[in-house]
Amino acid sequence: MTPAMRVVEKRQLLSAEEIGRTLQRLAHEIVERTGGAKDLALIGVRRRGVPLANRLARQIRGFAQVAVPVGTLDITLYRDDLSTVGPQPVVQSTDIDFVVDNRDLVIVDDVLYTGRTIRAAMNGLFDLGRPKRIRLCVLIDRGHRELPVEASFIGQTVQTSDTEIVEVRLEEIDGEERVVLVDRVP
Amino acid sequence: MLGIETLSSEQIAFILDQSKPFQEFQRHPLKKLATLRGKTVAVAFFEPSTRTRISFTTAASRLGADTMALQAESSSLKKGESLIDTVRTLEAMRPDGIVIRHSSSGAPEFVAERLEIPVLNAGDGTHEHPTQALLDALTIRDRKGKLEGLNVTILGDILHSRVARSNINLLSKMGARVTLCGPAMWLPRDLAFLAPNLRLTHRIEEALEGAEVVMVLRVQTERIHEPSLAPDEYIAGYQLTPARLQLARPGALVLHPGPIVRGLEIDSAVADGPQSGVLEQVTNGLAVRMALLYHLIGGASADAPHPAKDRTNASD
Asked: Could you give the CA distance from residue B125 to residue B84 in angstroms, rounded to a whole number?
Protein backbone atom coordinates (compact mmCIF):
# COMPACT_ATOMS: atom_id res chain seq x y z
CA MET A 1 0.00 0.00 0.00
CA THR A 2 1.40 3.38 -0.93
CA PRO A 3 1.50 5.89 1.94
CA ALA A 4 -1.02 8.15 0.24
CA MET A 5 -3.74 5.46 0.42
CA ARG A 6 -6.44 5.78 3.03
CA VAL A 7 -9.31 3.55 4.00
CA VAL A 8 -12.90 4.79 3.79
CA GLU A 9 -16.11 3.03 4.72
CA LYS A 10 -18.35 2.66 1.65
CA ARG A 11 -21.41 0.99 3.05
CA GLN A 12 -22.72 -1.35 5.69
CA LEU A 13 -23.39 -4.86 4.40
CA LEU A 14 -25.02 -6.32 7.52
CA SER A 15 -26.32 -4.84 10.77
CA ALA A 16 -26.09 -6.64 14.11
CA GLU A 17 -29.68 -7.79 13.70
CA GLU A 18 -29.03 -9.06 10.18
CA ILE A 19 -25.94 -10.97 11.33
CA GLY A 20 -28.12 -12.65 13.98
CA ARG A 21 -30.83 -13.61 11.49
CA THR A 22 -28.27 -14.84 8.95
CA LEU A 23 -26.60 -17.10 11.51
CA GLN A 24 -29.98 -18.48 12.51
CA ARG A 25 -30.73 -19.40 8.89
CA LEU A 26 -27.26 -20.90 8.43
CA ALA A 27 -27.68 -22.99 11.58
CA HIS A 28 -30.96 -24.38 10.25
CA GLU A 29 -29.45 -25.15 6.84
CA ILE A 30 -26.52 -26.96 8.45
CA VAL A 31 -28.82 -29.13 10.58
CA GLU A 32 -31.08 -29.84 7.60
CA ARG A 33 -28.20 -30.92 5.37
CA THR A 34 -26.35 -33.01 7.95
CA GLY A 35 -29.27 -35.31 8.76
CA GLY A 36 -30.14 -33.52 12.00
CA ALA A 37 -26.55 -32.68 12.91
CA LYS A 38 -25.66 -36.36 13.13
CA ASP A 39 -21.82 -36.73 13.31
CA LEU A 40 -21.57 -32.96 12.82
CA ALA A 41 -18.68 -30.94 14.23
CA LEU A 42 -17.89 -27.27 13.57
CA ILE A 43 -14.35 -26.00 13.00
CA GLY A 44 -13.89 -22.28 13.58
CA VAL A 45 -10.96 -20.75 11.72
CA ARG A 46 -9.01 -18.20 13.77
CA ARG A 47 -9.85 -15.55 14.43
CA ARG A 48 -13.38 -14.55 13.48
CA GLY A 49 -14.51 -18.03 12.47
CA VAL A 50 -14.23 -19.05 16.12
CA PRO A 51 -17.01 -16.90 17.64
CA LEU A 52 -19.17 -17.62 14.57
CA ALA A 53 -18.77 -21.41 15.04
CA ASN A 54 -19.59 -21.06 18.74
CA ARG A 55 -22.74 -19.06 17.97
CA LEU A 56 -23.89 -21.60 15.36
CA ALA A 57 -23.39 -24.44 17.87
CA ARG A 58 -25.38 -22.50 20.48
CA GLN A 59 -28.23 -21.97 17.99
CA ILE A 60 -28.26 -25.65 17.02
CA ARG A 61 -28.38 -26.71 20.66
CA GLY A 62 -31.28 -24.31 21.12
CA PHE A 63 -33.63 -25.52 18.38
CA ALA A 64 -32.40 -29.06 17.62
CA GLN A 65 -31.28 -30.07 21.13
CA VAL A 66 -27.99 -31.43 19.77
CA ALA A 67 -24.64 -30.62 21.41
CA VAL A 68 -22.35 -30.07 18.45
CA PRO A 69 -18.60 -30.21 19.19
CA VAL A 70 -16.70 -27.07 18.21
CA GLY A 71 -12.99 -26.97 17.43
CA THR A 72 -10.63 -24.08 16.82
CA LEU A 73 -8.15 -24.18 13.97
CA ASP A 74 -5.11 -21.95 13.49
CA ILE A 75 -3.90 -22.11 9.91
CA THR A 76 -0.61 -20.20 10.30
CA LEU A 77 1.63 -23.26 9.87
CA TYR A 78 -0.26 -24.21 6.70
CA ARG A 79 -0.09 -20.85 4.92
CA ASP A 80 1.42 -20.85 1.43
CA ASP A 81 2.90 -17.35 1.68
CA LEU A 82 5.14 -17.78 4.73
CA SER A 83 8.41 -17.24 2.95
CA THR A 84 7.08 -14.01 1.45
CA VAL A 85 5.44 -12.13 4.32
CA GLY A 86 8.50 -10.90 6.23
CA PRO A 87 8.81 -11.92 9.90
CA GLN A 88 7.00 -15.14 10.66
CA PRO A 89 3.43 -14.65 11.91
CA VAL A 90 2.71 -15.70 15.48
CA VAL A 91 1.38 -19.26 15.77
CA GLN A 92 -1.79 -19.74 17.80
CA SER A 93 -3.10 -22.95 19.28
CA THR A 94 -5.36 -25.38 17.47
CA ASP A 95 -7.88 -26.81 19.90
CA ILE A 96 -9.76 -29.77 18.47
CA ASP A 97 -10.35 -32.18 21.34
CA PHE A 98 -12.49 -34.68 19.43
CA VAL A 99 -11.56 -37.30 16.85
CA VAL A 100 -12.18 -35.97 13.33
CA ASP A 101 -12.20 -39.43 11.72
CA ASN A 102 -15.60 -40.12 10.09
CA ARG A 103 -16.98 -36.77 11.23
CA ASP A 104 -19.15 -34.54 9.10
CA LEU A 105 -17.10 -31.36 9.42
CA VAL A 106 -18.18 -27.82 8.62
CA ILE A 107 -15.39 -25.23 8.50
CA VAL A 108 -16.65 -21.83 9.64
CA ASP A 109 -15.00 -18.55 8.61
CA ASP A 110 -16.11 -14.94 8.29
CA VAL A 111 -15.13 -14.06 4.69
CA LEU A 112 -14.45 -16.29 1.69
CA TYR A 113 -12.09 -14.53 -0.72
CA THR A 114 -9.16 -16.20 -2.52
CA GLY A 115 -9.86 -19.62 -0.99
CA ARG A 116 -6.30 -19.98 0.26
CA THR A 117 -7.27 -19.95 3.94
CA ILE A 118 -9.68 -22.80 3.34
CA ARG A 119 -7.06 -24.81 1.45
CA ALA A 120 -4.77 -24.33 4.48
CA ALA A 121 -7.57 -25.27 6.89
CA MET A 122 -8.25 -28.50 5.01
CA ASN A 123 -4.57 -29.42 5.15
CA GLY A 124 -4.62 -28.81 8.90
CA LEU A 125 -7.66 -31.04 9.31
CA PHE A 126 -6.11 -33.87 7.29
CA ASP A 127 -3.19 -33.88 9.74
CA LEU A 128 -5.67 -34.75 12.47
CA GLY A 129 -7.37 -37.65 10.71
CA ARG A 130 -9.76 -38.55 7.92
CA PRO A 131 -13.10 -36.74 8.13
CA LYS A 132 -16.09 -38.28 6.34
CA ARG A 133 -16.84 -34.96 4.67
CA ILE A 134 -15.72 -31.35 4.88
CA ARG A 135 -17.98 -28.47 3.95
CA LEU A 136 -17.63 -24.75 4.32
CA CYS A 137 -19.82 -22.11 5.95
CA VAL A 138 -19.03 -18.39 5.56
CA LEU A 139 -20.82 -15.24 6.61
CA ILE A 140 -19.72 -13.35 3.45
CA ASP A 141 -18.62 -14.65 0.04
CA ARG A 142 -16.86 -11.75 -1.71
CA GLY A 143 -15.63 -13.57 -4.83
CA HIS A 144 -12.15 -13.30 -6.42
CA ARG A 145 -11.25 -16.96 -5.94
CA GLU A 146 -7.71 -18.13 -6.71
CA LEU A 147 -8.42 -21.78 -5.92
CA PRO A 148 -11.32 -24.12 -6.71
CA VAL A 149 -13.03 -23.65 -3.34
CA GLU A 150 -16.76 -23.01 -2.85
CA ALA A 151 -18.90 -22.70 0.27
CA SER A 152 -21.92 -24.92 0.97
CA PHE A 153 -23.46 -22.47 3.42
CA ILE A 154 -23.29 -18.76 2.58
CA GLY A 155 -24.67 -15.88 4.62
CA GLN A 156 -24.47 -13.28 1.88
CA THR A 157 -22.76 -13.02 -1.50
CA VAL A 158 -21.25 -9.58 -2.18
CA GLN A 159 -19.85 -8.15 -5.39
CA THR A 160 -16.53 -6.46 -4.59
CA SER A 161 -13.61 -4.91 -6.40
CA ASP A 162 -10.02 -5.88 -5.76
CA THR A 163 -9.22 -2.79 -3.71
CA GLU A 164 -12.21 -3.20 -1.39
CA ILE A 165 -12.06 -4.93 1.97
CA VAL A 166 -14.91 -6.71 3.73
CA GLU A 167 -14.63 -6.14 7.47
CA VAL A 168 -16.60 -8.41 9.73
CA ARG A 169 -16.75 -6.93 13.22
CA LEU A 170 -17.95 -9.20 15.97
CA GLU A 171 -18.82 -8.35 19.56
CA GLU A 172 -16.47 -11.03 21.00
CA ILE A 173 -13.41 -9.65 19.21
CA ASP A 174 -14.13 -6.12 18.06
CA GLY A 175 -16.62 -4.89 20.65
CA GLU A 176 -19.15 -4.04 17.92
CA GLU A 177 -21.40 -6.05 15.65
CA ARG A 178 -21.68 -5.28 11.92
CA VAL A 179 -20.22 -6.03 8.50
CA VAL A 180 -18.89 -3.14 6.42
CA LEU A 181 -17.39 -2.70 2.98
CA VAL A 182 -14.39 -0.37 3.00
CA ASP A 183 -12.26 0.85 0.13
CA ARG A 184 -8.73 2.09 -0.21
CA VAL A 185 -8.59 5.39 -2.05
CA PRO A 186 -5.64 7.55 -3.04
CA MET B 1 19.86 -17.44 19.18
CA LEU B 2 23.20 -17.67 20.92
CA GLY B 3 22.27 -17.62 24.58
CA ILE B 4 19.73 -16.67 27.22
CA GLU B 5 21.98 -13.83 28.38
CA THR B 6 21.07 -11.58 25.44
CA LEU B 7 17.30 -12.25 25.62
CA SER B 8 14.83 -10.02 27.45
CA SER B 9 12.15 -11.48 29.71
CA GLU B 10 9.59 -10.50 27.03
CA GLN B 11 11.48 -12.46 24.37
CA ILE B 12 11.73 -15.48 26.67
CA ALA B 13 7.99 -15.32 27.39
CA PHE B 14 7.30 -15.03 23.64
CA ILE B 15 9.34 -18.16 22.85
CA LEU B 16 7.60 -20.10 25.63
CA ASP B 17 4.17 -18.97 24.39
CA GLN B 18 5.07 -19.88 20.81
CA SER B 19 6.14 -23.35 21.99
CA LYS B 20 2.60 -24.15 23.18
CA PRO B 21 1.06 -24.84 19.73
CA PHE B 22 4.05 -27.01 18.87
CA GLN B 23 3.63 -28.91 22.14
CA GLU B 24 0.09 -29.74 21.15
CA PHE B 25 1.33 -30.67 17.65
CA GLN B 26 3.39 -33.55 19.13
CA ARG B 27 0.07 -35.29 19.88
CA HIS B 28 -1.12 -35.18 16.26
CA PRO B 29 -1.42 -38.54 14.53
CA LEU B 30 0.35 -37.07 11.48
CA LYS B 31 3.47 -35.28 12.66
CA LYS B 32 4.63 -33.66 9.47
CA LEU B 33 4.19 -30.05 8.43
CA ALA B 34 5.20 -28.45 5.16
CA THR B 35 5.80 -25.06 6.82
CA LEU B 36 9.56 -25.02 6.19
CA ARG B 37 9.46 -27.13 3.05
CA GLY B 38 12.43 -26.35 0.84
CA LYS B 39 14.48 -24.97 3.74
CA THR B 40 17.62 -26.71 4.93
CA VAL B 41 19.03 -26.69 8.44
CA ALA B 42 22.67 -27.60 8.99
CA VAL B 43 23.07 -29.50 12.26
CA ALA B 44 26.76 -29.27 13.12
CA PHE B 45 27.75 -31.13 16.27
CA PHE B 46 31.45 -30.83 17.00
CA GLU B 47 30.89 -32.64 20.28
CA PRO B 48 29.06 -35.94 20.79
CA SER B 49 25.39 -35.66 21.63
CA THR B 50 22.40 -37.90 21.31
CA ARG B 51 19.25 -36.25 22.57
CA THR B 52 19.90 -32.65 21.52
CA ARG B 53 21.00 -33.69 18.04
CA ILE B 54 18.01 -36.01 17.54
CA SER B 55 15.69 -33.36 18.97
CA PHE B 56 16.90 -30.61 16.60
CA THR B 57 16.87 -32.98 13.61
CA THR B 58 13.36 -34.19 14.43
CA ALA B 59 12.10 -30.64 15.04
CA ALA B 60 13.39 -29.54 11.62
CA SER B 61 11.96 -32.62 9.94
CA ARG B 62 8.51 -32.18 11.52
CA LEU B 63 8.44 -28.62 10.17
CA GLY B 64 9.18 -29.98 6.71
CA ALA B 65 12.80 -28.78 6.51
CA ASP B 66 15.68 -30.96 5.41
CA THR B 67 18.80 -31.32 7.51
CA MET B 68 22.45 -31.76 6.71
CA ALA B 69 24.27 -33.35 9.59
CA LEU B 70 27.84 -33.05 10.70
CA GLN B 71 28.86 -35.23 13.59
CA ALA B 72 31.80 -35.16 15.93
CA GLU B 73 33.18 -38.35 14.46
CA SER B 74 33.22 -36.79 10.97
CA SER B 75 36.37 -37.28 9.01
CA SER B 76 37.02 -33.60 8.22
CA LEU B 77 37.35 -32.82 11.92
CA LYS B 78 39.67 -35.77 12.43
CA LYS B 79 41.76 -34.50 9.52
CA GLY B 80 42.28 -31.22 11.35
CA GLU B 81 39.98 -28.81 9.53
CA SER B 82 39.38 -25.61 11.50
CA LEU B 83 35.94 -24.66 12.86
CA ILE B 84 35.54 -21.71 10.50
CA ASP B 85 36.56 -23.73 7.44
CA THR B 86 34.08 -26.45 8.34
CA VAL B 87 31.13 -24.09 8.81
CA ARG B 88 32.02 -22.08 5.68
CA THR B 89 31.99 -25.35 3.75
CA LEU B 90 28.55 -26.12 5.15
CA GLU B 91 27.37 -22.58 4.38
CA ALA B 92 28.49 -22.99 0.77
CA MET B 93 25.87 -25.74 0.45
CA ARG B 94 23.30 -22.98 1.14
CA PRO B 95 21.48 -24.02 4.31
CA ASP B 96 18.97 -21.51 5.72
CA GLY B 97 20.28 -21.82 9.26
CA ILE B 98 22.86 -23.67 11.31
CA VAL B 99 22.61 -25.39 14.68
CA ILE B 100 25.97 -25.64 16.43
CA ARG B 101 27.27 -27.60 19.38
CA HIS B 102 30.91 -27.15 20.30
CA SER B 103 33.14 -27.96 23.26
CA SER B 104 34.58 -24.43 23.23
CA SER B 105 32.63 -21.67 24.96
CA GLY B 106 31.79 -18.90 22.50
CA ALA B 107 32.12 -21.02 19.34
CA PRO B 108 28.55 -20.30 18.10
CA GLU B 109 29.06 -16.56 18.57
CA PHE B 110 32.37 -16.74 16.70
CA VAL B 111 30.57 -18.49 13.84
CA ALA B 112 27.56 -16.13 13.91
CA GLU B 113 29.84 -13.12 13.44
CA ARG B 114 31.19 -14.66 10.26
CA LEU B 115 28.12 -16.20 8.60
CA GLU B 116 25.05 -14.57 7.06
CA ILE B 117 22.57 -17.25 8.17
CA PRO B 118 20.94 -17.60 11.61
CA VAL B 119 22.98 -19.59 14.14
CA LEU B 120 21.36 -21.58 16.95
CA ASN B 121 23.48 -22.52 19.92
CA ALA B 122 22.93 -26.17 20.89
CA GLY B 123 25.43 -25.98 23.75
CA ASP B 124 28.90 -24.43 23.85
CA GLY B 125 31.52 -25.58 26.35
CA THR B 126 30.63 -24.49 29.87
CA HIS B 127 28.95 -21.34 28.57
CA GLU B 128 25.29 -21.73 27.51
CA HIS B 129 22.69 -24.27 26.42
CA PRO B 130 19.76 -21.94 25.73
CA THR B 131 17.28 -24.42 24.29
CA GLN B 132 17.70 -26.64 27.37
CA ALA B 133 16.87 -23.72 29.67
CA LEU B 134 13.83 -22.86 27.54
CA LEU B 135 12.47 -26.40 27.59
CA ASP B 136 13.08 -26.57 31.34
CA ALA B 137 11.17 -23.32 31.78
CA LEU B 138 8.31 -24.62 29.63
CA THR B 139 8.10 -27.79 31.75
CA ILE B 140 8.14 -25.78 34.98
CA ARG B 141 5.51 -23.34 33.72
CA ASP B 142 3.23 -26.22 32.69
CA ARG B 143 3.49 -28.00 36.03
CA LYS B 144 3.61 -24.99 38.35
CA GLY B 145 1.65 -22.46 36.31
CA LYS B 146 4.32 -19.74 36.56
CA LEU B 147 8.02 -18.99 36.92
CA GLU B 148 7.85 -15.79 38.92
CA GLY B 149 8.44 -16.22 42.63
CA LEU B 150 9.13 -19.96 42.39
CA ASN B 151 11.87 -21.50 44.56
CA VAL B 152 14.15 -23.42 42.21
CA THR B 153 17.16 -25.39 43.45
CA ILE B 154 19.91 -26.38 41.02
CA LEU B 155 21.93 -29.27 42.37
CA GLY B 156 25.32 -30.66 41.38
CA ASP B 157 28.30 -29.59 39.30
CA ILE B 158 27.32 -25.95 38.76
CA LEU B 159 30.81 -24.81 37.73
CA HIS B 160 31.09 -26.97 34.60
CA SER B 161 27.42 -26.85 33.61
CA ARG B 162 26.22 -24.77 30.66
CA VAL B 163 22.73 -26.04 31.50
CA ALA B 164 23.02 -24.44 34.94
CA ARG B 165 24.35 -21.18 33.50
CA SER B 166 21.50 -20.81 30.98
CA ASN B 167 18.94 -21.80 33.60
CA ILE B 168 20.29 -19.37 36.20
CA ASN B 169 20.08 -16.64 33.59
CA LEU B 170 16.59 -17.49 32.43
CA LEU B 171 15.06 -18.16 35.85
CA SER B 172 16.49 -14.96 37.33
CA LYS B 173 15.17 -12.91 34.42
CA MET B 174 11.73 -14.45 34.89
CA GLY B 175 11.69 -13.66 38.62
CA ALA B 176 12.29 -17.11 40.12
CA ARG B 177 14.31 -17.47 43.35
CA VAL B 178 17.30 -19.64 42.53
CA THR B 179 19.40 -21.66 44.98
CA LEU B 180 22.63 -23.29 43.84
CA CYS B 181 23.94 -26.31 45.70
CA GLY B 182 26.95 -28.56 45.22
CA PRO B 183 30.32 -29.51 46.65
CA ALA B 184 32.65 -26.54 47.25
CA MET B 185 34.94 -27.34 44.31
CA TRP B 186 31.98 -27.24 41.90
CA LEU B 187 30.34 -24.23 43.52
CA PRO B 188 32.93 -21.51 44.05
CA ARG B 189 31.69 -18.34 45.78
CA ASP B 190 32.17 -16.14 42.71
CA LEU B 191 29.31 -17.94 40.92
CA ALA B 192 27.06 -15.72 43.07
CA PHE B 193 27.79 -12.96 40.55
CA LEU B 194 26.09 -14.86 37.68
CA ALA B 195 22.77 -13.24 38.57
CA PRO B 196 21.31 -11.01 41.27
CA ASN B 197 19.85 -12.60 44.42
CA LEU B 198 21.34 -16.07 43.95
CA ARG B 199 21.55 -18.19 47.07
CA LEU B 200 24.54 -20.55 47.37
CA THR B 201 24.90 -23.42 49.79
CA HIS B 202 26.99 -26.55 50.10
CA ARG B 203 24.41 -28.30 52.29
CA ILE B 204 21.76 -30.21 50.37
CA GLU B 205 19.28 -30.19 53.27
CA GLU B 206 19.36 -26.40 53.33
CA ALA B 207 19.05 -26.20 49.52
CA LEU B 208 16.02 -28.48 49.36
CA GLU B 209 14.00 -26.85 52.14
CA GLY B 210 11.12 -24.98 50.52
CA ALA B 211 12.16 -25.95 46.98
CA GLU B 212 9.30 -26.15 44.47
CA VAL B 213 11.55 -27.30 41.63
CA VAL B 214 14.73 -29.35 41.96
CA MET B 215 16.98 -29.42 38.94
CA VAL B 216 19.52 -32.21 39.16
CA LEU B 217 22.64 -31.88 37.00
CA ARG B 218 24.67 -34.72 35.57
CA VAL B 219 28.17 -35.17 36.96
CA GLN B 220 30.16 -34.24 33.87
CA THR B 221 33.21 -36.42 33.97
CA GLU B 222 34.22 -35.32 30.43
CA ARG B 223 34.54 -31.66 31.39
CA ILE B 224 36.44 -32.12 34.64
CA HIS B 225 40.18 -31.83 34.41
CA GLU B 226 41.18 -31.41 38.02
CA PRO B 227 41.12 -34.33 40.46
CA SER B 228 37.44 -34.86 41.11
CA LEU B 229 35.30 -36.05 43.95
CA ALA B 230 35.06 -39.80 44.51
CA PRO B 231 31.65 -41.08 43.34
CA ASP B 232 30.72 -42.50 46.73
CA GLU B 233 31.43 -39.16 48.39
CA TYR B 234 29.21 -37.40 45.87
CA ILE B 235 26.45 -39.94 46.41
CA ALA B 236 26.67 -39.58 50.18
CA GLY B 237 26.57 -35.79 50.05
CA TYR B 238 24.46 -34.84 47.04
CA GLN B 239 22.50 -37.70 45.45
CA LEU B 240 18.80 -36.83 45.21
CA THR B 241 17.12 -39.68 47.11
CA PRO B 242 13.45 -40.14 48.04
CA ALA B 243 14.30 -39.25 51.66
CA ARG B 244 16.01 -36.01 50.65
CA LEU B 245 13.22 -35.09 48.24
CA GLN B 246 10.90 -35.20 51.28
CA LEU B 247 12.67 -32.04 52.49
CA ALA B 248 11.37 -30.08 49.48
CA ARG B 249 7.81 -28.76 49.19
CA PRO B 250 5.20 -31.50 48.68
CA GLY B 251 4.84 -32.16 44.95
CA ALA B 252 8.12 -30.46 44.09
CA LEU B 253 9.02 -31.00 40.43
CA VAL B 254 12.25 -32.89 39.68
CA LEU B 255 14.07 -32.10 36.44
CA HIS B 256 17.22 -33.52 34.87
CA PRO B 257 18.68 -32.47 31.50
CA GLY B 258 19.86 -36.01 30.76
CA PRO B 259 21.55 -38.28 30.19
CA ILE B 260 20.81 -39.58 33.67
CA VAL B 261 23.44 -41.55 35.52
CA ARG B 262 21.19 -43.60 37.78
CA GLY B 263 22.60 -44.21 41.21
CA LEU B 264 25.07 -41.32 40.94
CA GLU B 265 23.37 -37.91 40.95
CA ILE B 266 19.83 -39.27 41.26
CA ASP B 267 18.19 -42.34 42.76
CA SER B 268 16.07 -44.41 40.34
CA ALA B 269 13.02 -44.10 42.60
CA VAL B 270 13.14 -40.30 42.16
CA ALA B 271 13.96 -40.36 38.44
CA ASP B 272 10.99 -42.65 37.76
CA GLY B 273 8.71 -41.23 40.47
CA PRO B 274 5.54 -39.15 40.04
CA GLN B 275 7.41 -35.90 40.74
CA SER B 276 9.82 -36.45 37.86
CA GLY B 277 9.34 -34.34 34.73
CA VAL B 278 12.26 -35.91 32.86
CA LEU B 279 10.32 -37.34 29.91
CA GLU B 280 8.14 -34.22 29.60
CA GLN B 281 11.38 -32.28 29.26
CA VAL B 282 12.31 -34.39 26.23
CA THR B 283 8.94 -33.84 24.51
CA ASN B 284 9.02 -30.12 25.36
CA GLY B 285 12.48 -29.90 23.80
CA LEU B 286 10.93 -30.72 20.42
CA ALA B 287 8.28 -28.01 20.87
CA VAL B 288 10.79 -25.32 21.86
CA ARG B 289 13.13 -26.18 18.99
CA MET B 290 10.27 -26.24 16.46
CA ALA B 291 9.16 -22.80 17.65
CA LEU B 292 12.69 -21.41 17.35
CA LEU B 293 13.33 -22.95 13.92
CA TYR B 294 9.96 -21.69 12.69
CA HIS B 295 10.73 -18.12 13.70
CA LEU B 296 14.44 -18.06 12.83
CA ILE B 297 14.69 -20.15 9.67
CA GLY B 298 11.34 -19.34 8.08
CA GLY B 299 10.16 -16.00 6.83
CA ALA B 300 11.49 -13.56 4.32
CA SER B 301 13.66 -10.56 5.01
CA ALA B 302 11.59 -7.58 6.07
CA ASP B 303 12.39 -5.63 2.91
CA ALA B 304 11.57 -8.34 0.38
CA PRO B 305 8.79 -6.97 -1.81
CA HIS B 306 5.80 -9.22 -2.30
CA PRO B 307 2.16 -8.57 -3.14
CA ALA B 308 0.99 -10.74 -0.23
CA LYS B 309 2.16 -8.08 2.23
CA ASP B 310 -0.25 -5.67 0.63
CA ARG B 311 -3.18 -8.02 0.53
CA THR B 312 -6.64 -6.99 1.49
CA ASN B 313 -8.31 -9.47 3.83
CA ALA B 314 -4.83 -10.87 4.47
CA SER B 315 -6.26 -13.55 6.73
CA ASP B 316 -8.07 -15.00 3.75
From this structure: 17
